[in-house]
Amino acid sequence: METIKAIMTRRSIRTWTNEPVSEEERRIIMAAAMNAPSAADARPWCFVEIDDRDTIGAFTELGGTEMLAESTYLVMVCGDVSKEIYPGFWPQDCSCAAQNMQLAAHDIGIGAVWVAIYPLEERVRKCREVLSIPDSITPFALLAMGVPNEVLPPEDRYDESRRHQNKW
Length: 168
Fold this sequence. Notes:
The protein has helices spanning 3-9, 23-34, 53-58, 90-107, 121-131; strands at residues 45-50, 73-80, 111-116, 137-146. By secondary structure, the protein is α+β, with helices and mostly antiparallel strands.
């Protein structure tokens, strides 16, 4: 799939079949994450991959996340401030990694949805608890993935009124 087509056709998928995401598909998705740009190439991210049904089930208690019970593969994107070169940029870096994961997943036929974790303290706490994440690492975003059980048409979200030239 070409890059522009992937960007323009990717949609948040919230229902999946029970077919697992293969190891090769996982590797492609994780390689895309780790090839994301980051400030000063610090790469202040780490990832927890989850395919255990009980662990996946624990995330359905975050509120508004009941659909996660259908996912066969989750990835918790985490920030590690000890890896930063320019303090404060880790959320942007982790966002780039998460976006790369979604686009890679879409490209290979895996459906994904981004569940916001940081900066919601209750969600951060729950994720630390479920995954035994140390205090030095911050849970940032949870990506739920699987073989899609829905097909959503592309949406044209272009809005000319959001563009400004040379000044506001």
